[in-house]
Amino acid sequence: MSPTAAEHTRTAVGLAARDASGHLSPLAITRRSTGDDDVVIKILYCGICHSDLHGIKNDWKNASYPMIPGHEIAGEVTEVGKNVSKFKAGDRVGVGCMVNSCQSCESCGKGFENHCPGMILTYNSVDVDGTVTYGGYSSMVVVQERFVVRFPDTMPLDKGAPLLCAGITVYSPMKYHGLNVPGLHLGVLGLGGLGHVAVKFGKAFGMKVTVISSSSGKKEEALERLGADAFVVSKDADEMKAAMSTMDGIINTVSANIPLAPLFGLLKPNGKMVMVGLPENPIEIAPFALVATNKTLAGSFIGGTSDSQEMLDLAAKHGVTADIEVIGADYVNTAMERLAKADVRYRFVIDIGNTLDKAAATTE
Ligand code: NAP
Ligand code: ZN
Ligand code: ZN
After folding, report:
1. Closest CA to 123 of 195, 72, 163, 170
2. Residue among 254, 274, 283, 302 to mutate when testing ligand 1 (max atoms within 8 A of CB)
3. Ligand 1 center to residue 312 CA distance, Å?
4. Per-residue model confidence as pLDDT tens digits over 217-260
5. How far apart are CA 347 and CA 31, in angstroms?
6. pLDDT score of 9
7. Atom of ligand 1 at shortest distance to CA of 53?
């Protein structure tokens, strides 16, 4: 490769938050030059996860600014390092929440890079060279081959992008907590980006799926469009009472602090709630809610790279994709305001390929 070409691949533009206001605006950045194990990706779409919103607002008190969020990345390979065997230029690929890990610990050995103490997140994480990682609200990214997944031929890049975080985050606990068994009754708490994909996987696994939502606003589409079997409004005492002790498991995707004790009442004895939502403040649970009928509260954090590929392949097989609203890069701040109010059906996806350069040029 000529030095000019190498130089060219390192320049990128992103949408960055500068402080906890979370306002996103263009920022010129450089990406590392292509290492032997690296895949260079032209980003075409990036989903907006609620974690991006938590991140730019510094809800978790770990923000490093400027922050370029985005970990639901879909795009096309433009170049690969000399050791890369799985991908070549032109391939349709994705990157989720991680871009590296130690690759030698027990967790990495078992394919759970998401549990590796040396895991490097796609953004707001310190990379091996000491720089802070920048995410997918940007024009290109350079990622180690191990952390890149292949898009199945039938999986569209825009509707598939959210699976890279929302998909694996619900698929992994369903797999490892036995909540993928035909005939079992799954509760999906919170019908947002993660929740609506959980409904679709639950139905793909042959489960009975009940959505537990904070209002009745999403009832019709949950039942008719997403294929849920039932819908319970968590603030409606009668509906909650009727659903008591009926569920084998609940995937809790709620992004805010809500009282959990009544929700444990929905579980059968020995039922489990797997928490994937990451509200800002500590959660509070009355011990009796757990202890009385042997309930389990578990947590689950994204998923490993091989599980991510497995999830994507399975999603393609069952026709599971995200319901999305595609937006231009210039709409991203409005999208964040709407996401904060759960006003999206059910994932914003930024059309990076067609709109980011233009948005960056007009705000310069
Ligand atoms: P989202 O699209 O905003 O969906 C969250 C849903 O939670 C909303 O649609 C809403 O559902 C419900 N909700 C929000 N505020 C509420 C409130 N005050 N009271 C009751 N319900 C409320 O978010 P997401 O992208 O799916 O992410 C959900 C959470 O998972 C976030 O905290 C995110 O950071 C976290 N997350 C965790 C992981 C992980 O690895 N564990 C990975 C990705 C994301 P209804 O309208 O149905 O009530
Ligand atoms: Zn996410
Ligand atoms: Zn490791």
Report:
1. 72
2. 254
3. 21
4. 999 999 999 999 999 999 999 999 999 999 999 999 999 999 99
5. 27
6. 56
7. 34
